Amino acid sequence: MKGFHLFSFNTLYLIIAVAFLIVPVDSMTLAEEIPKDIKWLSNTHDPVFASPDAKKGGTLHSAVMSFPLTFRVVGPDSNSSFRSAILSNQLGLIGIHPNTENIIPELATHWAFAKDKKTMYFRLNKKARWSDGKPVTADDFAYTLEFMRSKHIVAPWYNDYYTNEIEKVVVYDDYTLAVVATKAQPDLHLRIGLNPTPRHFYGELDNEFVNKYNWKIVPNTGPYQISDFQKGKLVKFKRKKEWWATNLYYFKNRFNVDKVIYTVVRDYNIQWEYFKKGKIDIFDITLPKYWHAKTKMLSVENGYINKIWFFNDTQRSGQGMWLNQDKEIFKDKNVRYAFAHAMNINKVIKNVLRNDYYRLEHGFVGYSRYSNNNIKARRFDLEQVDLYMKESGWKRGSGGIWEKDEKRFSVNVSYHFDEHTPRLVVLKEEAKKAGIKLKLQKLDQSSAYKKVIEKKHDVAWMGWSTSLRPQYWEHFHSVNAHKPQTNNITNTDDPEMDRLVDAYRNSLDEDERIGLSLKIQEKIHETGAFVPTFMVPYVREAYWRYWKLPDIPGTKMSGGLFDPFGSATGGLFWFDKDEYDKTKAAMKKKEKFAPVTIIDETYKMKSL
Questions:
Q1: Strand partners, 230
Q2: What is the DSSP letter of 67?
């Protein structure tokens, strides 16, 4: 799963958002022609990352901890982790190669840059089809503006972004278009690699959009589509038999399984039992107790189940504790600093996580020159806690907990993943030494997400998905504070932060943007509303031996080796029926295979 996640998933999903002005085909004049001096580009020469040995067939059984609140990908309750499974089956104009980071084709076969450095031209693949068989045309990209700007979708972030970043989309014919940004900017292709929206499906939007499309299966352009679902129980995806892009250069030998079934299993320990019995095919064993202890079982020792530790080198999720500054207790910066110094993260890493995890220093690690590597997270320090609390007039009260004006320093920490309880128990006991009472509030995943996105939390224990460049506006600009259904869950409302974020969004120069990015990260650190916790620069998974991976099991950006979807890194694995039959026969006869544990450091971060 991807998108908004509550520490359960660490999978990369690239979101490219744009805004533009519709220019209908019938408004085009003959004088409006594509410049003849542009250079059309394509890319079918970067290395492929799938295996030629891959086979089609089989069903991947996986599990999710809660059923999504909606199948919409915009609007209320849509920003859950399951959203990525739907979005990953929608292609854009262009993609990004997961190892070289060069542009690669998706719905467009060719692209070109104008001299103004704010316009890109695209030629669509005439074979591209929606899942209902309709052709993908330039008008589907034009319709995205109409859709994303509409107030009917109840999505302020998209309304804003799709209004302010792009000046217009020019439709030349059914298969040729241009996207014009409001200004010249670096990384233009990351701003305008937009996705189509099926006008023929939605038509004219109205006030009934949210309810009307809550459980609709929208046509898409990717390899899979939802084929069935039972609310609260499961969602099935089915591979398209005649997918138009099956033989494209970067899609060959990928997206191999016929079906993907996500079953709702609300307890992680029960998911593990399902996996051991073969009811689930793969299992994330990033948690140290699984890698080191729980996988010491006959199925692994007898070679029926394989283990893999695969290092990646990509942007790190902003995982940590997000403090709600609209809560009275956290309006005081000194109190926020004290809270950070009361969190003994390093003890959790040592005692609970077996030193397998790394300390995350801030929320934007791994973004190359855009990351401020001088920032260090506040460490556990009882003297600093004492200093900040006394400076704000707090005194130790009953049980040693800080008190002021008849209020105690007692806050709820909202989370959903039961496996994280031991980490929080350590933090709770250590925080008590610092005079802070943590009340652990475990909710199911949907309830935890809803509580946070409605800004009703004290402290949110969670992380965010990533993109190729840092995104600040949605998380830290005041326009997204003090209201529900936005990603500014700390309710940061700071004029200087707004100035920096606006300048970052509006900058025409890459070096200036990088400088602003470093300053924004300093400002976020200064605010103290985010307490970074852990960084996990790898993937660890267990899988039944009849599931196969390429020789290099993943890519530099892979956040999961058994992600069935996603144009950038998904669908590299496959099901081997012969090995399945051999495995089942061996298990029946109690025969053994050589145990397999793979440690792949091909893309291990140099700084580790």
A1: 234
A2: -
Angstrom CA distances, 327 to 401, 404, 431, 485, stand at 18, 15, 19, 17
DSSP strand E in 203-300: where?
224-230, 234-239, 259-264, 282-284
Q: Per-residue pLDDT tens for 358-398?
A: 999 999 999 989 999 999 999 999 999 999 999 999 999 99
Contact 136, 130 (CB under 8 A): yes
Q: What's the pTM value of the predicted model, to 2 decimals?
A: 0.81
Indicate the burial class of 22 (C-beta count within 10 angstroms; 0-12, 13-18, 19 or more). middle
Q: Judge whether 492 and 526 are in contact, CB under 8 Å.
A: no
Q: How far, CA to CA in Å, does 148 sit from each of 21, 194, 535?
A: 11, 12, 34
Residue among 116, 233, 211, 94 nearest 154 (CA): 211
How would you label 105-140 residue by residue, b for 16+ Cβ within 10 Å and e otherwise? bbbbbbbbebeeebbbbbbbbeebbbbeeeebbbbb
Residue 179 CA to residue 499 CA, distance in Å, equals 27
Same domain, 47 and 173: yes
Q: Which residues contact 200 (CB under 8 A, 6 or more apart)?
A: 130, 134
CA 560 to CA 553: how far, in whole Å? Answer: 10
**pLDDT number for residue 2:** 33
Return the CATH number at 352: 3.10.105.10
Kindly give the parts of the chain with pLDDT less than 50. Answer: 1-31
pLDDT in tens, 318-329: 999 999 999 999
Residue that has been written with the tokens 């995890």 in this structure: 357
pLDDT value for 367: 92
Give the span between the Cα atoms of 286 and 358, in whole angstroms: 13
Measured CA to CA, the distance from residue 160 to residue 164 in angstroms comes to 6
| Longest CA–CA separation in the chain, Å | 80
Cα→Cα distances 279→59, 86, 236, 262, 282, Å: 11, 23, 15, 11, 9
* CATH code for the domain in which residue 109 is found: 3.90.76.10
CB 192 within 8 A of CB 18: yes
548 three-class SS: strand
> In angstroms, how far is CA 607 from the centroid of its own chain?
23
Domain of residue 93, residue span:
25-52+88-212
> What count of other Cβ atoms lies within 10 Å of the Cβ of residue 73?
20
pLDDT of residue 6: 31
Tell which residue, 170, 181, 169, has the closest CA to residue 117: 181
Total count of domains within the chain: 2
